[in-house]
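User: My advisor, Dr. K., asked me to get a structural model of this assembly before our group meeting. I'm new to this, so sorry if the format is off. These are the inputs:
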Amino acid sequence: MSTTTLIPVAIPTALRAQVDGQSELQVSGETVKAILESINQQYPELGKRLFKTEGELNRFINIYVNDEDIRFMDNLDTTLKPSDEVAIVPAIAGG
Amino acid sequence: MSYVKCLKSKESGAEYPIEPRTVCDIGFSPVEVAYDYAAMQGKVTRASIEAGPLSLWRYKDLLPIEGEPKAGLHSGWTPLIKADRLAAELGVKELYIKDDSANYPSFSYKDRVVSIAITKAIEFGFDTVGCASTGNLAHSVAAHCAAAGLKTFVMVPHDLEEGKMVGMTVFGPQVVRIQGNYDDVNRLCSQIADKYNWAIVNVNLHPFYTEGAKTYGFEIAEQMGWKLPQHTVVPVAGGTILPKIYKGYKEFIELGLVDDNNPTIHGAQAQGCNPIVTAIEEGEEIFRPQKPKTIAKSIAIGNPADGYYVIKDILKSGGWAASATDPEIIDAIKLLARTEGIFTEPAGGTTLACAIKLINSGRIPKDESICICITGNGLKTLEVMQNQFTTAPVINAKIKEFDEVIVKGNITASTVSA
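Assistant: The format is fine. Below is the predicted structure of the whole assembly, which you can bring to the meeting.
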């Protein structure tokens, strides 16, 4: 896909302060990793919260592509199509 | 007065006021209630607890509420059974069952966490309460909210057992069934909590809710005569109860209410959903999520939010974990029923089946005290026991036909002497 195609990324309330209050970002990238790196460049404060170390996601954050956890796909290397939607969701408990 | 200090991040140490809050702003880690244990010394004693009500509220000083309890006044204080017949069967010396299948009002351990969550929802002034649930939590939330006069929204997987669906629906909540498994429900619920100003017990009330699970551990300790079992076997789903039982034990030790015997905590999961067991067996501190496939639906959580802390606490305590297949779960349900007269749901069967594996593998020595945590009731999941028993004979009300049942069944029966 063209790198100019924008993918919507849903931002949870807890992270909106780091993106000027936006609930959704439009980001270009061919993989989840590329999307997150692009977010990191534009919003380094959010980036700090998304990654534990470089290349390793914060374990308390789950990333979904079209409602599927990326850990069931290719994790950060999961590739994206123009129609895909990405969501950042904090892990929550229950039962 | 309350001994609560603040909410504190489990990772960054950041402190927050007592408020509805899901996670720490800095790294998304869970936040936990912090208490002033020094101020409790000499005031929170065996005597002060024993003078309290026969409910989980006897531990009010160790729970995060500001005023008087407003929900679940009769929850907790469930039986701790010295399970001698089961112990003989398993060849162990000292075995206890903590039986929350008898919890009030909804027959699972969830009545503990919900009592605290609903009290906090009222303290915070919410009029609508919700949850994501595999059944038991929704049942409990719906019952407590009905009694408190709160509006209720519960989100559950679409394919729950009928007993659980009827059990929650009778209280009049808005029930929404979600296509997918619990982890899908959970993700949606996290997004719902972002949008609607509701108290979601396992999202923005999570820090308070989870504290209620400590009372399970407090009761084990008090009912054993103010001591701790050497081994506690706990089912693992989202990962709330295991770390909180451990926290409860540690608080009692800190306050000098019990001796420190270095209690060991073990985890139990169904084989069809065992991310924690897999991580422990493979020596990983981070689990990989799974797509659940098991009859133990109440613990079918493939992406346990507090799983990281479950692994950490099990290993720190010197414990281990095991998983049980569906047939092993059914066999354990029958064994517990046959030996102790307790009918548990598949989660309880899982816990017993895993305890047996841990005993047989030597992880739990046979001569040390063991407590098995039974957290739910078998009457809610009757489907799983279908076709497990021979059909009972039907006869006419005639003594001759009854005699035939005795003869055909080869039943030993003494008769009254003529």
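One thing worth pointing out at the meeting: Chain A is about 25% helix and 30% strand.

User: Perfect, thanks a lot.
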